[in-house]
Each structure stands twice: as C-alpha cells, then as structure tokens.
C-alpha cells in the first residue's frame, strides 16, 4: 500500500471508514492529519474521515494555548482543541501530547475535569499511557 502522506510503499494502517482505501504509516499519521485511537480496537482514520470535536465554541480573539502560550487557531481544528467540560481551555494538539509526560493524573489544567477531558482526548487520538 502507498502512504497518502509520504507516498512511499509499505503503509500498513488503513482508514476505518467504509469505502475508504487510504493508507498511511503510523509515523506519518500526525503529519497527514490522520487520527489513530489508542484504545479498544485501535481504530484509525484518514484526514478526510477523522473524528472532529463536537464542541460548538470558538476561541476569543487572542486566545493562547495554555501550554505554550502561542495563539491557537480561530476555531476547533485538527491542530487546535478545547476542553469539552469548561470550553475555555484551548490547546494545540502537539502541546496536549507533551502534557501527559511525567504526570499521573491526566486532566484539563484550569477546570481539573478528568473524566470528559480524558474521554475526549482518547476519541481525538491522543495517546495517554497508563502508569
């Protein structure tokens, strides 16, 4: 299979969406906007069929990522995510990936919600190691 991201052969992950035959390498997934869920059946989705956050909120002008303090996109996107509980905590996807390093409790920083935040991160393909 040819990878839809790097166009090299050997792509072993195929989008779960019925009728979609797009494949990609695991290391290429993030660069291509693909999502791989690291729970249950390890489902993967290409950039066209990946799940999106269902939160209907947009960041205020000048909103920054709570981790890196850099501006976030003007809406929820693959790169920009929001806490589904408080709807005020905005993060870059790559910053959330760094958030879980070295902590034992994975939760939203401002509201301390762990349940909805954790479930949403799993759904959105954030790999959270259990220790």
CATH topology of the largest domain: Herpes Virus-1
Low-confidence stretches: none
Series of H and E elements: EEEEEEHH
N-C termini distance: 35 Å
CATH class wording of the largest domain: Alpha Beta
Number of helices: 2
- Work out the count of structural domains: 2
Strand proportion: 5-15%
**Helical content class:** 10-25%
What composes the largest sheet? 2 strands, antiparallel
Let me know the average pLDDT.
Answer: 88
Structural class: little secondary structure
Strand order of the largest sheet: 1-2
Q: Mind telling me the C-alpha Rg?
A: 15 Å
Keywords: Ligase, Metal-binding, Zinc, Zinc-finger
GO cellular component, one term: nucleus
GO molecular function: ligase activity; zinc ion binding
Protein name: G2E3 ligase
Question: Features of this protein?
Answer:
2 domains, little secondary structure, Herpes Virus-1, two-stranded antiparallel sheet, 131 residues
Overview of the molecule:
InterPro entries: EPHD (IPR034732), PHD-type_Zinc_Finger (IPR051188), Zinc_finger_PHD-type_CS (IPR019786), Znf_PHD (IPR001965), Znf_RING/FYVE/PHD (IPR013083). This is G2E3 ligase. This protein has two domains: 1-50, Zinc/RING finger domain, C3HC4 (zinc finger) (Herpes Virus-1), CATH 3.30.40; 52-130, Herpes Virus-1 (2-Layer Sandwich). With 131 residues, the chain is mostly loops. The chain has helices at residues 93-99, 115-123, and strands spanning 13-14, 23-24, 35-36, 44-45, 80-82, 90-92.
